[in-house]
Write a structure and sequence with these properties.
single chain; 677 residues; seven-stranded mixed sheet; 23 helices; 14% strand; globular
Length: 677
């Protein structure tokens, strides 16, 4: 799925006191129009980023064998070794050579970029649950800024400030700082500004500051996934000046930039949103909520859309006002749910997929504002990965917290009757479209009714505990998942953890395989009866081994040295060349490692309170997790008739207990030994 990991710091975010709502500001000035005014242009490092390496064929084969060993039988492993050896010495060499040749001819991009786009766009499954993830942002603690229309206005403004900064090349370049105190500085920027642009990335490496690819950022806004038979396409509208607003299934277009491209004033945006709410209150909820169609199987939606736009009026409205919107803003009602920290699952399910009547899942970014002001992002995944989305949401949370432009007492500029800037989208609906919406609604309702969601909060494990004991927080979480699944279901299965390869030009992600022989050894040892169980010190040594192996896998993946994307690209080359699928891809081991029963994604940001996504296989677990300063947590989705989410989450709590006990007991034993010596 997607891996979200926050940078240690964010560059150049303006620190300002909360604005008094009565303060008059010049809205055409840089302080309002731009979130940042970076000394280094946004894409300063893009040209000099290294290319994503293609791993050595023999290394990918070795890594594949290591990954499948814990999840196959001894006989299956021996058979797989033989097939891999034949692949490495035969057709694999031929495909690898062709892949290298193709990569050499396309130096502007990476070997995985286009095949990965094609993979996303060609899949025909519905977007909700299968591709579009959900991220819930940290709530405002000040009531005057949490009201729905106020929260929406401030998030719109901060989003536009982010977008305008990006378009003007004023947004700070995305850089991972190993030591922010030393490199997130004006001095670092001055040195970079005089470095030759062709070598700027390598100059930055000398400071232990690592620039990241930003090629995906241009698709954050103004992008729509258009359904087509067989394969969708992405349509970009970077010069758009409006957003799509949805309320109770009714659709509106609202201008947020003026004719010159400047962000409208806060009172104007607030007034236009209020006029939509007032206008909508005079109408019935949409009797034919068209947004439901975006929840359908993609070929079904493509056929429905083709018929729908056979009407010239519909074609114009859909393409100009919906496809061309910068992003979608959904203003939900009380009936759609509000956030309850003690039981967040009902709201999370609604935001992840829900009724889909007030959604347009095809937009690159959909901002969902619940009746209580809870703000979430549901994003279409084909255009980009978590790094760009996390940067965006981190920036808007910080901006709306530090300098909100409106509050509950802010006067608004009335927009009643302003049909130029606030446009109700009234489509022509015939019986065929009505029937398509009813069918899509029924199918989505059936899927969502079968979705189960279980949440665990575990305060006895956090980042501080891991740091104190010299352990990687992520490795402990992943080890806990393996132990939980093994003790609940008595087996080991294909497990997916995504790692960004954005350190390279047009990098996407690489897969880490957290189920290893090291994690298997620990699980088998700790599940032994107490009289046969290794000592706490021996178990702790096994945890250290798991952490070491996990750390190496992380490093390999981040440096483009995994095996999943390489083998994916080799299979893609066989398809391009019209060659038969190599035997490697027919093995039980390859099928099993790619049948990701445990699909995981981590949220490493203090701006986020929850994140979730659907299972990627019918009998799998969609496992969104985080480990923070005060707790560890997990949100697990399953299909009720296919997998046992409650059993897993109960087992996960037990696994946390077990691992924490081992850590504490081994630490106590080590201290006692030191005292006795």
């Amino acid at each position: 799925m997607f891996r979200l990991k926050a940078n240690k710091s964010r560059l150049g975010v303006a620190v300002a006191a909360t604005r008094n709502s009565t303060t008059t500001t010049t809205t055409h000035g840089n302080h309002y129009q731009y979130l940042q005014t970076s000394k280094l242009p946004t894409l300063y490092f893009q040209r000099s980023l290294p290319r994503l390496p293609i791993p050595l064929l023999e290394k990918s084969c070795e890594r594949f064998l290591a990954a499948v060993q814990p999840i196959v039988s001894a006989d299956e492993y021996r058979q797989t070794q033989q097939v891999v050896a034949e692949f490495r010495q035969g057709i694999g060499m031929e495909l690898h050579a062709k892949l290298k040749q193709r990569d050499e001819a396309n130096k502007h991009t990476s070997y995985i970029s286009q095949p990965w786009f094609d993979m996303y766009l060609a899949d025909r499954v519905p977007l909700p649950l299968n591709y579009n993830p959900l991220v819930v942002l940290k709530n405002e603690t000040r009531p005057e800024y949490q009201q729905q229309v106020v929260r929406a206005t401030n998030v719109i403004i901060s989003s536009l400030r982010f977008w305008r900064s990006l378009q003007a090349h004023k947004l700070e370049p995305e850089i991972y700082h190993m030591n922010p105190k030393k490199t997130d500085t004006d001095s670092y920027r001055r040195w970079m500004s005089i470095a030759p642009k062709a070598f700027a990335t390598y100059a930055s490496y000398a400071f232990k500051a690592f620039p990241l690819d930003m090629s995906q950022y241009s698709r954050l806004f103004g992008t729509s996934r258009i359904p087509r038979i067989g394969k969708d396409e992405l349509v970009l509208s970077p010069d758009s000046k409006h957003i799509l607003v949805m309320r109770r299934g009714n659709m509106y277009a609202m201008n947020v930039l003026d004719s010159s491209g400047y962000i409208e004033s806060p009172s104007v945006i607030l007034g236009r949103l209020k006029s939509i709410i007032d206008l909508d209150a005079q109408r019935e909820p949409a009797s034919v909520p068209l947004g439901v169609l975006t929840s359908a199987q993609r070929d079904d939606w493509a056929r429905s859309r083709a018929h729908f736009i056979s009407s010239p009026k519909n074609a114009d409205l859909l393409q100009r006002e919906v496809d061309g919107a910068l992003f979608c803003l959904s203003l939900d009602g009380v009936d759609d749910g509000v956030y309850n920290d003690d039981n967040p699952a009902p709201l999370l399910k609604e935001l992840l997929g829900g009724k889909s009547t007030n959604r347009w899942f095809d937009k690159s970014i959909s901002l969902l504002i619940s009746a209580d002001g809870t703000t979430s992002i549901n994003f279409e995944h084909s255009w980009g990965d978590g790094v760009a989305v996390l940067r965006y949401l981190n920036e808007i949370v910080r901006d709306t917290t530090r300098q909100p432009y409106v509050s509950s007492s802010t006067p608004h500029t009335p927009a009643d009757g302003d049909a130029h800037n606030v446009r109700s989208l009234n489509f022509e609906i015939d019986d065929k479209t009505r029937a398509a919406v009813e069918t899509a609604y029924s199918k989505n309702a059936s899927i969502m009714a079968n979705l189960d969601m279980n949440v665990l909060k575990y305060p006895s494990l956090n980042k501080g505990i891991c740091k104190r004991h010299g352990l990687s927080p992520d490795s402990i979480m992943q080890l806990s998942f393996q132990l939980a699944y093994r003790q609940a279901f008595q087996r080991y299965v294909g497990t997916y953890e995504s790692c960004s390869t954005s350190a390279f030009r047009h990098g996407r992600t690489e897969t880490m395989r957290p189920c290893t022989m090291a994690t298997k050894a620990f699980c088998e040892a700790v599940l032994q009866p107490s009289q046969r169980q290794p000592s706490a010190g021996e178990l702790r040594a096994m945890i250290d081994k798991c952490s070491s192996v996990h750390g190496q896998l992380t490093k390999d993946a981040a440096m483009g040295q995994g095996f999943d994307r390489h083998l994916f690209a080799l299979r893609h080359m066989a398809q391009l060349e019209g060659l038969p699928q190599p035997a490697l891809y027919e093995t039980e081991a390859y099928r099993r490692i790619n049948y990701n029963i445990i699909s995981t994604s981590t949220l490493g940001a203090d701006t986020v309170i929850a994140g979730c996504f659907g299972p990627v296989v019918k009998d799998g677990l969609g496992l969104g997790y985080s480990i923070m300063n005060d707790m560890a947590g997990a949100i697990v989705t399953t299909y009720k008739d296919q997998a046992q989410g409650k059993e897993f989450i109960d087992s996960l709590e037990s696994a946390f207990d077990t691992i924490c006990s081992v850590i504490e007991r081994s630490s106590s034993a080590a201290k006692a030994q030191a005292i006795s010596n």
